[in-house]
């Protein structure tokens, strides 16, 4: 077997968790990531028949039975993933019963996956129904996005329009807009269900005064969505106290959708 710490998917997880901590997106033990892995790729590094222990998932994910995930651990700090991945990360497989996870590697200190795993699994299920190539669910707490949710009306059309108008890139990166949820208790199946429902339409969901849920086919894609929303939120707050001199109009936004052949939320523009 190859050394699993050299696996591309492991290196990718280490690189992103380290960078997200550096940026302040994941303070302390805040934030979590789950990456769906290819069984054939995992087989190069692990004995697929060897199960260390089983852990209840807290959610019936039978539709994902047999799927393998690399998941950040509960109570773990992203800053420690790079120096001790085997304690701070784990590789699990959803058992045939759907309510049990088989630990195949990691959580070496006896820990387990993030408490928000049910929300991740629900979002994976939702995204698989929209885009079977979707493999990543990423949750974090970017400063400016959080601040924006405290001062902006939390309506999907309104928030999306504000973000689109902050910089030319926004509508190109997230033409479908952003989903929005009111403040809810975290780590519950209720917030997971609400997020998954939004994920059927949006690749980005804002949790008011909490953070962002983003998804993608790759880690880069999921993170790219998040950092673009965060950049737009930052620009909104920087400009909020200043008189507006220049703006991106709805006509300008429409011109961008034509230029880049975007499948955008047409009802979010006033044309």
Short structural summary:
The protein has 271 residues and is α+β, with helices and mostly antiparallel strands. 38% of the residues lie in helices and 17% in strands.
Structural features, described:
The protein is of the alpha+beta class. It has 2 domains: 115 residues, 3-Layer(aba) Sandwich (L-fuculose-1-phosphate Aldolase); 138 residues, Class II aldolase/adducin N-terminal domain (L-fuculose-1-phosphate Aldolase, 3-Layer(aba) Sandwich). The protein is 38% helix and 17% strand. The protein contains 10 helices and 9 strands. It has a 9-stranded mixed sheet, sandwiched between helices. Helix 4 runs parallel beside helix 8. The chain is elongated. The mean pLDDT is 96.
Quickly give the CATH architecture of the largest domain.
Answer: 3-Layer(aba) Sandwich
CATH topology of the largest domain: L-fuculose-1-phosphate Aldolase
Q: Which structural class best describes the helix and strand composition? A: alpha+beta
**What is the CATH class designation of the largest domain?**
Alpha Beta
Count of β-strands? 9
What is the residue-mean pLDDT, rounded to a whole number? 96
Describe the global form: elongated
What summary fits the major beta sheet? Answer: 9 strands, mixed
Q: So, the CATH homologous superfamily of the largest domain?
A: Class II aldolase/adducin N-terminal domain
Total DSSP helices: 10
Order of secondary-structure elements: HEHEEHEEHEHHHEHEEHH
Count of folded domains:
2
Q: Helix coverage percent of residues?
A: 25-40%
Task: Return residue spans where pLDDT drops below 50 for at least 5 consecutive residues.
Answer: none
Strand share of the residues?
A: 15-25%
Radius of gyration: 19 Å
Strand order of the largest sheet: 2-5-4-3-1-6-9-8-7
Compute the separation of the termini in Å: 59 Å
């Amino acid at each position: 077997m190859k050394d699993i710490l050299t696996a591309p998917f492991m290196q990718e997880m280490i690189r992103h968790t380290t960078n997200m901590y550096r940026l302040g997106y994941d303070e302390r033990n805040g934030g979590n990531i789950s990456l769906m892995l290819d069984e054939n790729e995992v087989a190069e590094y692990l004995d697929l028949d060897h199960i260390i222990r089983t852990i209840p998932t807290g959610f019936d994910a039978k539709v994902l039975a047999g799927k393998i995930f690399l998941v950040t651990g509960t109570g773990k700090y992203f800053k420690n993933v790079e120096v001790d991945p085997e304690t701070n990360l784990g590789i699990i497989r959803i058992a045939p019963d759907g309510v049990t996870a088989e630990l195949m590697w990691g959580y070496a200190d006896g820990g387990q996956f993030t408490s928000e795993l049910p929300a991740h699994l629900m979002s994976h299920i939702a995204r698989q129904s929209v885009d079977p190539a979707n493999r990543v669910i990423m949750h974090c707490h970017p400063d400016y996005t959080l601040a924006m949710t405290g001062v902006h009306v939390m309506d999907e059309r309104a928030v999306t329009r504000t973000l689109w108008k902050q910089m030319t890139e926004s509508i190109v990166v997230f033409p479908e807009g952003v989903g929005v949820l009111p403040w809810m208790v975290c780590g519950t199946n209720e917030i997971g269900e609400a997020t998954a429902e939004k994920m059927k339409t949006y690749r980005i969901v804002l949790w008011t005064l909490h953070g962002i849920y983003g998804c993608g086919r790759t880690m880069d894609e999921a993170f790219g969505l998040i950092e673009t929303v965060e950049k737009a939120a930052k620009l909104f707050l920087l400009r909020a106290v200043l008189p507006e001199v220049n703006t991106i109009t709805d006509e300008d936004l429409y011109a961008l959708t034509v230029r880049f052949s975007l499948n955008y939320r047409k009802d979010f523009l006033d044309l």
